[in-house]
Amino acid sequence: MIGTQRKHSTLRFGALPGAATWLSVLVVLSQASTSPSGQPQQPATVPRVLGKGTGGDGAWSCHSAAHSPTTVNLDEAAGPEGTPAAIVEFAFSPDKYNWNWADVEVGGVEPGHFKAVRLTYRTQVAADFARLNLMVSESSGGSYWAPGGLPLSLGRFRTVTIAFAALTLTPWSKDANGKLDAHLVQNISIGLETGRGGKGRLVISDVELVPEGW
Q1: SS3 sequence of the chain
Q2: Which domain holds residue 161?
Q3: Is the separation of the CB atoms in 169 and 178 below 8 Å?
Q4: Would the pLDDT of 21 be above 90?
Q5: 3: left (phi over 0), alpha (psi -120 to 50) or beta
Q6: Does the first or last residue of the chain, that is N or C, have fewer Cβ atoms within 10 Å of its Cβ?
Q7: Is residue 59 part of a domain?
Q8: Are 172 and 200 contacting, i.e. CB atoms less than 8 angstroms apart?
Q9: Do the domain assignments include residue 94?
Q10: Which residues, in sequence order, are bridge partners of residue 64?
Q11: How many domains does the chain have?
């Protein structure tokens, strides 16, 4: 069962030289509801890239089965057109149930008025390897994923957009109302699960929260 064992590795983007230059905000974002200061805000109108290049409020982390060692690091030029990307590297053991997750925090973003998550990625694995998993987790503990997973993308970057409404509750998770509540979204996770061994890499360029109409 995915997530029953945890081995953590954390990357803090803000602590690296030049981190301030990695923040990729497409447009100044207006948000909805009420800010922590109590000031009213407007609904989100454009996609929001999570953090500095990628990385929430400055951090990626990863966890995996003990026999599926996984790390996450930043490469400043591994993304499309030489942009920053998170590099997830793993070594899966043969004849064991392998799993891993790379997690990015929503952080200071108010997620309540977003409707989807958008991921830009490239995979460096065998062509017949398991499909990629995408999971969205709530602060209340519920987690939802894309049924059937996402296709591998060998040799090129692929962008996919998954509506929150299309995600289904993970088999190991419980949620009282049985649906993903956007205002509770806390983490976006990308990973793999398989019974085969092998080494590989995931190159994650952008993780975005997407409002209606995008």
Answers
A1: CCCCCCCCEEEEHHHCCCHHHHECCCCCCCCCEECCCCCEECCCCCCEECCECCCCCCEEEEEECCCCCEEEEEECCCCHHHCCEEEEEEEECCCCCEEEEEEEECCCCCCCCEEEEEEEEEEECCCCCCCEEEEEEECCCCEEECCCCECCCECCCEEEEEEHHHCEECCCCCCCCCCCCHHHEEEEEEEEEECCCEEEEEEEEEEEEEECCC
A2: 9-211
A3: yes
A4: no
A5: left
A6: N
A7: yes
A8: no
A9: yes
A10: 100
A11: 1
For residue 79, the domain's CATH number is: 2.60.120.430
CA distance 27 to 29: 6
Instruction: Look up residue 94 and give its amino acid.
Output: P
Place of tokens 């930043």: 74
Whole-number Cα distances in Å, 92 to 111, 149, 151, 180, 196: 34, 19, 19, 31, 7
Cα 125 to chain centroid distance, Å, stands at: 19
Q: Is position 1 within any domain? A: no
Segment 112-140, tens digit of pLDDT: 889 999 999 999 999 999 999 999 999 99
